[in-house]
Amino acid sequence: MKLVDDFLDQRLFRAFLAAVTAESFPWELSQVNSQPAEGLAPELNRQAVHGFFMRKSGLQFVSPYFDLVRPILFQLRPREVLKVKLNRTGRQESHLEYGMHVDTRRPGATTAVLYLNTNNGYTLFADGRRVESVANRLVMFDASLRHTGVSCTDAPGRLILNINVLAGDSP
Question: pLDDT per residue over 67-95, tens digit each?
Fold first, then answer.
């Protein structure tokens, strides 16, 4: 696991954040996890998402907003991009774990999570490790590691950029 604070130049980070939090930026409602944690009510298993890119089983989707993530991908220097998705979960009364999962089963894949706002939510790994949600922090880990997002209670929501790649040179 690799943790990088202040991953993006502040100007680039602020510009990206302003673009994706603009009122006109398009979001879709989705499940947080297709196999939610036991006991998680269906109405709590919801998030807003924007898919920037996905390549799977010979199919490819590219968002009209893909150019927003190009500088981030350039900094990551992946060999191949598999998926890039923005996730926004709302504030909850208490911390909710959405369910352990892996983002992709592609051998050799790496997951990178870029935290876009600071809040008391976090990423929890099956082995008990946690990565706190700190704005402009990036965590990279083997995509086979089971993990879950955990909601925040102290901000309007938790905003992350989830990136799945075949790693190239390390940032």
Answer: 999 999 999 999 999 999 999 998 989 88
Rounded to an integer, what distance in angstroms lies between the CA atom of residue 130 and that of residue 125?
6
In 3-state terms, what secondary structure has residue 146? coil
Q: What are the backbone angles phi and psi of residue 75, rounded to the nearest 5°? A: -70, -30
- The amino acid sitting at 94 is S
Domain of 57, in residue numbers: 2-166
Residue 37 belongs to some domain of the structure: yes
Radius of gyration of the chain (CA): 15
Q: Find, among 103, 121, 109, the residue nearest to 162 by Cα.
A: 103
How many domains does the chain divide into?
A: 1
Q: For 70, phi and psi rounded to 5 degrees?
A: -55, -45
Report the predicted TM-score, pTM, of the whole model to 2 decimal places.
Answer: 0.91
Closest CA to 20 of 49, 47, 45: 49
How many CA atoms lie within 13 Å of 158's alpha carbon, on the beta-carbon side? 28
Amino acid at 39: G
CATH number, position 36: 2.60.120.620
**Residue 18 burial (CB count, 10 A):** 10
CB 36 within 8 A of CB 97: no
Q: Is residue 171 part of a domain?
A: no
